[in-house]
Amino acid sequence: MTVMAERTTSHMLVEEFEEIASAAPETVTLEFLNGRIEEKRVPDGDHDEIVRWLLRRCMQQRPDLFLYPAGRGLKVEEYRKGRARPDGVLAPDGHFAGEGEWSDPEGVLMVVEVTSHDGDTDRRDRQDKPAAYAAAGIPVYLLVDRDAGTVVVHTNPDAERGCYLDTHRAPFGEEVVLPDPVGITLDTDILKSWVG
Predict the structure, then answer these.
(1) What's the rounded Cα separation, in Å, for the pair 175 and 40?
(2) What is the domain extent for residue 86?
(3) How do residues 81-138 score in pLDDT, each as one tens digit?
(4) CATH code, domain with 79
(5) DSSP secondary structure string, 166-195?
(6) How many domains is the chain partitioned into structurally?
(7) φ, ψ for residue 68, nearest 5 deg
(8) From the centroid of its chain, how far is CA 134?
(9) Is 15 within a domain?
(10) Rounded CA gap, 145 and 41, in Å?
(11) Does residue 140 sit within a domain?
(12) What is the mean pLDDT of residues 173-188?
């Protein structure tokens, strides 16, 4: 880990990151954003329940799509030089057949992140990831922010500027519409149970 920590302070090539990530043990999830290696925290049970709940809602309302749970690697950021493993990736069923560890985000309709209770959440989930996903042109970024008790829907990505032009925040308990191309409505009241 010392070599990795030293290397993150200089410019790392994406190929170097992929080599490090492929050698990491299964208990460690690594991402590469803004030229830095990030270790993604192992999710707790409430985090998993939120992803499970969302997976079920997606399957009920859009059986033509599948919410691929954590582990699906995406090439993100400008020129696809970042690597992220969202908590969920919504795409047409079978979309990633034949793909390797890191897939181009073309055809991905939505990415999902659920905040973890750690010091990197603000920078990672609320700043770096929306910029990376927008730069990759992913139409919808859904953030379930357990710390704030809100669901944040980012839409209308501006790939050149690396930001979403529209953001809607709703407190847990409100109905949230995930607009086209997703087309799913969420009753978020149950999320109040999983903020711990």
Answers:
(1) 29
(2) 44-194
(3) 889 989 999 999 999 999 988 999 999 999 999 988 766 666 777 888 899 999 999 9
(4) 3.90.1570.10
(5) EEEEEETTSEEEETTTT-EEEEGGGGGGG-
(6) 1
(7) -70, 120
(8) 11
(9) no
(10) 15
(11) yes
(12) 97
Q: State pTM to two decimals.
A: 0.82
Q: Say which amino acid occupies 167.
A: T
Q: How far apart are CA 68 and CA 193, in angstroms?
A: 23
Nearest-angstrom CA–CA distance, 136 and 146: 25
Q: What is the DSSP letter of 101?
A: S
Which of helix, strand or coil describes residue 68?
strand
Q: Are 83 and 31 in contact (CB under 8 A)?
A: yes
In the chain, the amino acid numbered 8 is T
Concatenate the DSSP letters of all residues of 122-174 into one string.
HHIIIIIHHHHHHHTT-SEEEEEETTTTEEEEEEEEETTTTEEEEEEEEETTS
Report d(CA 173, CA 191) in Å as an integer.
7
Give Dmax over CA atoms of the chain in angstroms. 47
Asked if residue 113 belongs to a domain, the reply is yes
The CA-CA-CA angle for residues 17, 31, 156, to 5°, reads: 120
For residues 139 and 158, is the Cβ–Cβ distance under 8 A? Answer: no
Residue 3 lies in a domain: no
